[in-house]
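Hey team,

Filing this mostly as a record. A colleague (T.K.) asked me to run one chain through the structure pipeline before their review meeting, and I want the input and output archived in the tracker in case anyone asks later how it was produced. No errors, nothing strange. Just documentation.

Input sequence:
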Amino acid sequence: AVVIFVAVPFLLLLTPWGPNAAVDHRQRTLQKFQLPHVAKLVSSETRMRVGVRGGISHELIREFNRRTTTWWRDHQQYSKSHIRLRRFALVGNRKDLFRVVRPMLRDWAGLQQTQLEKNDWDVLWGINWDEETTLQKHDQSHRQVNQIRWMARKTLGTKDSFLASHRKCIQTHGRALCDVTPPAFAIPKEEAEWRATASVHPDQLWILKPSRGWSGLFVRVVNSTAADMPQKGNWVVQKYISNVSLYAGRKWDARVWVIITSLDPLRFYILRQAFARVASSPYSASTDFAADNCIHNTTPDSKKCDMSQQNIFEKHTSQRSFHRNITYSAPDLSQAASSDEKAKTEENFRTWNNKVWPAIEVAVTKSILMVWSKHMDMEKKSGASAFRRFQWLHFDVIVDGEGKPYVEEVNCNGFYVGDNYGWRTRRYMEMGMELLGVRGYDRTKYPEWVEAVDKFCDQDEGQRCHVRVESHKVRRNFLLDFVDEFQSTVSFNKRWHLAFPLPQTHRLYKRFFRGHSNHNNLLLWDFQKWLVKNPPKKAQDPSQQILKGKRGGARRGVK
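Output structure:
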């Protein structure tokens, strides 16, 4: 018995089928695929964490997995897990993150859930992480974090911070340039100023909401004579847009998704369609119904409001059928007298695409530009970020009867509903993750664009990408990042599209930052202009049409 249980396992270790042979096989496989710098990192561990511990880029991981998967199909005798690199995600425990984001990263992107203490994550997707004590200890730039520092707390993410940013914009640039959101006041700090302003128009309604509230909780409509204003906590009272466009006779607003993929240089993308939120009761602007939240709240309480009609409403603004029920009050936009239902739908659809949606993109662009310089100043004071940060923003936009959009609030920690509530957002989230490169980028599909970056940077004896202390390699890398994201939206992910920077948005940028231009932003614009003059592909390429301003809505209406 002793001989059997001791000698036999020892002999198995020496056989070609033992674990040492498996490790040697993985190393030989890596050498075969001409990745010796990865092979050096392979150890006898059962779970290979090369993507984290070795600081390997997402592109290399994707290329390695593609090659090894091809080999595995031809050689079935070894397990796929022996040669496949593994990557890890750290996802928060909020209900939507647990039910929507975590399964998506696991099943769609192939990332395994891990724990913060292990420090082996590649993608971190959570809410208000304690970054100063946890994240800043590790400098690994290949890691992705879904939080741009201070945006959720100090500039956009709360209602009082958005109010402060808007006021600062008006003081610096004037009301005409910063007219993106209705006037508002902080309560209880500015209650006296609000009452003085509201007394001029006593019939004007105002909407009161907590600074850090969500899902319409504690939101109510008030007027200037309201006596029970809160005296504790942080609240915001905002001018209520009474003359609103209506959907099937009800108030509605749009949730617009935006992804900021980079802060320096600034790059962000907008989902081409908005998600509609419709009130449960027919709309009335009368002060007699000011207390009825089922009329004024587009996220009504299902226990108090009649939700039986919610399932019949269209949820996406990109659907023509959605615009069949839209009504504007402006004479040039109203089709109430039209008896042809199809003609009314087509006219509303054209109004949305040619006027309303471009104006929404301009409002979103202005909202981000008015806080961008503050973020850049804070980044300089605290030091450069150690991670590849992105921010998934949810803009709540209301459209008045004239077709003018107003940003009601910005959610930095918006709720991800997945395929619930009729919105069916999972595929758009997958497209957004593809845009972010969660699964890596396959540059073999657009090699001429990668070569274009080298040609652009090699101009003027290689000095084109050298500005001040920035290294050639760093500036070339963010140009490649732009190419990866841009090609993802043009070729494989056409629902998201580039909103900034574009040559047509340069004028709006200069209005915000006269004489204080960012060199990286200017280099990216120069690269786009160079691409138009030296197209990597044929002129009919969709990317060329976008760079020339012939497609999309962001460049229309920008003055």
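Quick notes for T.K.: The first helix runs from residue 2 to 14. The mean pLDDT is 75.
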